[in-house]
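re: the backbone from monday

yeah here it is again, tokenized this time
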């Protein structure tokens, strides 16, 4: 089975999930679905990565309407994901990935796949993160080539991946929108600072799986 086929299989299972974990909003009949799982530039040669955030932000009505058109399927999720490819979260993260020389495919994912319930700020409940990571993310990671790097988007996602994946190199970056002030500190003249690229390169070239936080404070 190819990686694309493996992710398609997990995605088909994901959009039909009705686990209804605590602290999240899930209602497929209204187009509020588990999401943010898609493989970008799937056939591009080169070393790839998995980019993992916490959980999706609040969906907009036009997105929900898209999922309500006809029978819900993972193909609908992938189709809408292409429309989101240019928004700041993805564009800024992709720029970092490209500047680190990771030219292959990108698997976009989250620790938890559902958005927060109305009025909830910050993280989903810890047990929700644990449940969704066990049910989906760990299976996604198991399908990836061994040399792919895991990119944690935001400190919480970075730390979770560092513990979860001792056999794989993990790099963390500040959140490109929610923590944009810290994200900008990595950049000078429109490009990643040389010192940031150097630290990431040490991890990417390391024989032993290593970790690096690329934000202002190094976290080893």
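seq for it, each position gets an aa:
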């Amino acid at each position: 089975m190819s990686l694309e086929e493996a992710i398609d299989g997990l995605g088909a299972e994901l959009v039909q999930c009705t686990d209804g974990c605590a602290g999240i909003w899930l209602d497929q009949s209204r187009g509020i679905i588990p999401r943010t799982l898609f493989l970008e530039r799937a056939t591009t040669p080169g070393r790839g990565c998995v980019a993992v955030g916490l959980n999706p932000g609040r969906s907009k009505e036009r997105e929900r309407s898209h999922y309500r058109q006809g029978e819900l399927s993972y193909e609908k999720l992938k189709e809408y994901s292409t429309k989101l490819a240019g928004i700041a979260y993805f564009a800024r993260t992709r720029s970092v990935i490209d500047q680190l020389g990771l030219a292959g495919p990108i698997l976009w994912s989250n620790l938890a796949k559902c958005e927060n319930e109305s009025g909830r700020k910050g993280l989903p409940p810890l047990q929700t993160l644990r449940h969704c990571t066990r049910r989906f993310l760990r299976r996604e990671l198991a399908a990836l080539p061994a040399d792919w790097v895991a990119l944690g988007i935001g400190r919480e996602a970075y730390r979770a991946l560092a513990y979860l994946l001792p056999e794989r190199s993990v790099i963390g970056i500040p959140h490109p929108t929610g923590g944009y002030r810290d994200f900008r500190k990595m950049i000078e003249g429109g490009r990643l600072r040389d010192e940031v690229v150097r630290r990431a390169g040490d991890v990417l070239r390391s024989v032993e799986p290593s970790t690096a936080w690329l934000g202002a404070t190094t976290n080893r």
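The radius of gyration is 17 Å. The helical segments are 3-14, 61-68, 74-84, 88-99, 126-142, 155-164, 180-184, 194-205.
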